[in-house]
Amino acid sequence: MRKLLIAGNWKMNCGPYDAAELLEGLISQKSEVDENVDVLVCPPFVSIGMAVKYLYDTDIQVGAQNIHFEENGAYTGEISGSMLAESGCNYVIVGHSERRQYFGETDETVNKRVKKSLEHKLAPIVCVGESLDQRKSDTHHEVVENQIKAALEHVSNSEILDVVIAYEPIWAIGTGETASPEQAQEMHKHIRNILTNLYGDEAAEAINILYGGSMKPANARDLLDQKDVDGGLIGGASLDAESFSEIINIAEDLV
């Protein structure tokens, strides 16, 4: 049985002081989580230490929003896997559409980041998804398949069990639009079929596939109730302790 994973991506929000306030609110509502649900917050780099400190005695884990594919060196502004692991991270988001759109991420660099994450025992949350034009042109299945195959190149059968996939329809990120539960399930099933072809039935059935397109309390139940939707990569709703806690509660009701 796959656990549900509820992951909060804070994006470029919440420096240490705001992070402390948000974390206090989250802890007051949800310091303990059902054993069949994993919960994660991914603050900006400057707030990771604060999150680790506040969440130390809770069931909530900490992740990062990016990782560089080199171990160290003259890469101003970047952060390495060893730094993230030493800071207390367990997960790292890789290849988010905003990284691809604004910062030149490619399938090749996403793959390098996936491999570096696994090297440091950080579970990569690998983001894939199509634009509105790609969906309208009926190439969305091919786009997502190509992204997955590129991101997982040279990832072994043992390593894949530590990978999380997040389907984020780009047209639904930050727009208030959401894929219907049926659309989400259809794509998640497609992703699981791709994983089956790459790694076999057993591995594919063990991998979490998250929905990452404007999940919030109002639609979380219908999305999380789909067979192949194993959690959410939550953006805006994760910045409100009450909303994020409500989504966690919904996940717990469903397991």
Verbal overview:
The chain has one domain (4-254): TIM Barrel (Alpha-Beta Barrel), CATH 3.20.20. It has helices spanning 16-30, 48-54, 81-87, 97-103, 107-119, 132-136, 140-151, 181-199, 201-206, 217-224, 241-254; strands at residues 4-9, 37-42, 60-64, 91-94, 123-128, 164-167, 209-211, 231-234. Helix 10 (217-224) packs parallel to helix 11 (241-254). Helices cover 44% and strands 15% of the residues. The longest helix is centred in the C-terminal third of the chain and has 19 residues, at 181-199.
How are strands sequenced across the largest beta sheet?
Answer: 7-6-5-4-3-2-1-8
The CATH superfamily turns out to be: Aldolase class I
Beta-strand residue fraction: 5-15%
CATH fold field value? TIM Barrel
Q: What's the CATH class, please?
A: Alpha Beta
- The value of Rg in angstroms is 17 Å
Choose one word for the global shape: globular
Distance between the termini: 10 Å
Give the total of domains. Answer: 1
For the residues shown, what is the average pLDDT? Answer: 96
Helix content: 40-55%
Q: Biggest sheet: strands, sense, closure?
A: 8 strands, parallel
Q: Helices and strands, in N-to-C order?
A: EHEHEHEHHEHHEHHEHEH
